[in-house]
Specification:
The complex is a heterodimer of chains A (345) and B (331). Helices cover 35% and strands 21% of the residues of chain A. Chain A is of the alpha/beta class and 345 residues long. In chain A, strands 6-5-2-7-8-13 form a six-stranded mixed β-sheet, with helices on both faces. In chain A, strands 1-14 form a two-stranded antiparallel ribbon. In chain A, helix 2 (21-37) runs antiparallel to helix 9 and helix 3 packs antiparallel against helix 4. By secondary structure, chain B is an alpha/beta fold. Chain B has two domains: 2-77 and 298-323, no CATH class; 81-294, Rossmann fold, CATH 3.40.50. Chain B is rod-shaped and about 120 Å long. Chain B starts with a helix and ends in an 8-residue tail after the last helix. Classes of the chains: A alpha/beta (345), B alpha/beta (331).
């Protein structure tokens, strides 16, 4: 029989026959590794993540106490840096939407976009976020989180919320008028990321070029939570309170004053309470903690068909084959004896 | 050096634990034994010993490389070059509270807010398959970048959909235009630059702002197209208000100011679909050269490099394996 030996497949077959068992293991591993270099991809159900990133752009975020690498950078800059890092760590097929919080509400500025195809747009938009984008100046953090949760559920059924804030509430709020979460607790899952130092820092006043020109002083801010009607019920109490007037001074003439309303620290208690009320998770965000791992944690994932990389399915078996190749010959023989014994019986 | 290395990121570090398996080929006694009475009698062959060491090392290397590839090592700082052509259009969309009011000439149903009308018009514009580079800034009291100038139309559409939440705050036209113009700054002028303002224009500009804005427009050489959304009881730009009444029509004053910018300016009243088409056609007629621009991209995957290394090492192992003495030949 005449065979054209130039046919590579035939050569390969001959080579294969020529090999012993261990050589065949190795040759298969080589084939798998070679296939992986072709970067096979397929539409498969895979773990992806839908995140609604909301960032607090109120002025307390300008406090430069989010320390990274020795230089103090502002909480806002740190939050942006972390968001961009999170963006990089999300697998293709994940979607990200962006929102800004100031005053009492969160404004959605970008509907969900797939992270790989629209990476540049997302990355640049995050980079451009600035405290000057704030359209009003109060900071009712609880309202902001509630409205973000409300929006998240409308942006997508599996949308997770990541809220980057220092938890600063300004002006002071009367406990009596604190907002109450009315949505379904835990329906929208997500994380409240707390930023900043726990020691109170002064809030800077910035000029056009973001140079610090001064700081908010105690006299510049509202220090009394005297909005609305006071809680005092009994006449005795009313009489006791100095300068009480039912209409003009319901909190008396010397209401409880907050001494550090012009300072801002990471308000963990406030954020933990908000997170507990809404069913979110609270996490302090520091430099050492990998945000990538947090936003790609299994409990936040969604199963959806997405383009997935098939290479791990090829190289892992290749690795096992190489490992078996190195198993001592004596073990091999033991194996073969065992197998042949079973064949006989 | 540290700066460069800080760009190397590992996706799933725990996969690196697989590389512990590489100890196996290094430590195991793993060549076949021959039933020969006394191998000790043979002279020590230095070459064989070195070949064996190499063989173990290559195997270990292959496994480490596979583990590193699996862990998803990537290069974080990745900038890709893209080529765009067509006009460079920055859309400046008014998101102020006044945009929630009724539009004068609704297309759908009896009532349509100006915001919805603007969204409808812009969605048509963005979805058209022209090659223009687009970007979008929305503004109310302050401007917000929704999509950077580039070829990503989906991003602009996502920014447009986000305006469904409704408007807030005041109309700071000047700051919105300023932010859009900032996007042209420092880029080579390779195409016509257009700022497409979509607004109901209820804003006054003071003299100083007017001057600053005029300078910016001239410096960047950008033309201004204004898609004017008339309020239900608002005035048309075409009709000059009566003498002495000018102050009551901020949009007309804005219109008059824009015509003094010194760069091409056109106003379109979005009251009929034709006006919108005309605006688009005018943008299409602008002359352009292709432009190179740079965009950040997700990290560049480096795992292929490790798989390649693993392949090469495994090839080496196989080659050495073929040199191994499999059968004892008695001389």
């Amino acid at each position: 029989m005449v065979v054209d030996t130039r046919i590579p497949a035939w050569d390969a077959m001959k080579f294969w026959r020529h090999l012993d068992g261990r050589g065949r293991l190795l040759a298969s591993a080589l084939l798998l590794l070679f296939l992986s270099l072709l970067e096979p991809r397929a539409q498969l159900p895979s773990r992806v993540y839908d995140w609604y990133f909301v960032i607090d752009i109120t002025q307390s975020m300008n406090v430069r106490d989010a320390v990274t690498s020795g230089n103090g950078i502002s909480r806002l800059a740190f939050a942006k840096q972390q968001m961009r890092q999170a963006l990089r760590s999300l697998p293709c097929g994940s979607r990200v939407s962006l929102g800004l919080f100031t005053e009492r509400s969160t404004a959605n500025i970008l509907h969900p976009l797939e992270v790989c195809a629209h990476f540049a747009a997302l990355d640049e938009t995050i980079a451009s976020i600035d405290w000057r984008m704030a359209w009003a100046a109060d900071s009712y953090i609880a309202n902001g989180v509630f409205s973000a949760i409300d929006q998240a559920s409308r942006l997508g059924p599996e949308m997770r919320l990541a809220f980057f804030t220092d938890g600063n509430q300004a002006p002071e709020i009367s406990a009596r008028y604190a907002p109450v979460f009315e949505g379904e607790q835990g329906k929208v899952r997500g994380i409240v990321f707390g930023l900043g130092s726990q020691a109170a820092g002064r809030i800077p006043l910035l000029d056009q070029n973001d140079n610090i020109t001064g700081y908010w002083g105690a006299d510049d801010v509202q220090r009394y939570a005297t909005f609305g009607i006071s809680e005092i019920q009994s006449v005795a109490d009313m009489e006791q309170q100095q300068g009480y007037h039912g209409r003009n001074a319901p909190h008396g003439s010397a209401p409880k004053e907050s001494a550090n309303a012009h300072l801002s620290a990471l308000d963990q208690n406030n954020l933990q309470k908000i997170a507990k009320d809404t069913g979110l998770t609270y996490r302090e965000l520091t430099k050492d903690k990998e945000i990538g791992r947090v936003v790609t944690s299994n409990e936040m994932s969604v199963w959806r068909t997405a383009v997935s990389d098939l290479r791990p399915w090829l190289v892992l078996p290749a690795m096992w084959l190489i490992l078996i190749f190195y198993i001592p010959a004596s073990l091999h023989q033991l194996f073969q004896q065992h197998l042949s014994f079973r064949k006989k019986s | 050096m540290m700066q460069v290395l800080s760009n190397l990121m590992v996706g799933q570090p725990w996969y690196l634990l697989w590389s512990l398996l590489a100890l196996f080929p290094l430590l195991m006694k793993n060549y076949p034994a021959f039933p020969y009475p006394s191998l000790a009698r043979l002279p020590v062959d230095a070459l064989s010993i070195w070949i064996e060491r190499l063989w173990r090392l290559l195997g270990a290397l292959a496994m480490v490389c596979i583990a590193m590839g699996l862990s998803g090592i990537y290069w974080a700082e990745n900038i890709v070059e893209r080529v765009g052509s067509g006009a460079h259009v920055m859309i400046v969309l008014d998101r102020s509270a006044s945009m929630n009011d009724d539009f004068a000439d609704p297309q759908v149903g009896e009532r349509e807010s100006k915001m919805a009308a603007a969204r409808r018009v812009l969605q048509d514009f963005v979805s058209q398959g022209r090659e223009d580079m687009l970007g979008m800034v929305t503004f109310s009291t302050s401007p917000i970048l929704a999509a950077p100038l580039g070829g990503d139309r989906q991003a602009v559409l996502a920014g447009l959909s986000a305006t469904e939440a409704g408007g807030m705050g005041f109309t700071a036209v000047a700051r919105g235009l300023g932010m859009a113009l900032d996007y042209f700054k420092g880029r080579p002028v390779t195409g016509s630059r257009v700022v497409l303002l979509v607004s109901d224009g209820g804003a006054y500009l003071d003299a100083k702002t007017q001057e600053v804005l005029r300078n910016m427009f001239q410096r960047e050489g950008a033309s201004l197209f204004w898609l004017y959304l008339r309020s239900a009881n608002g005035a048309s730009l075409k009709v000059a208000p009566a003498e002495g009444d000018e102050d009551a029509y901020p949009e007309y004053q804005l219109h008059r100011y824009f015509s003094t910018l010194g760069t091409p300016y056109r106003a379109y009243e979005a009251d009929n679909p034709l006006a919108v088409e005309r605006a688009l056609a005018d943008i299409g007629r602008l002359k352009n050269k292709p432009v190179r621009y740079y965009q950040t991209a997700p990290g560049r995957d480096l795992s292929w490099l490790f798989y390649l290394l693993a392949l090469l090492s495994a090839c080496g192992v196989l080659a050495l394996h073929l040199t191994e003495v499999k059968k004892w030949r008695s001389a």
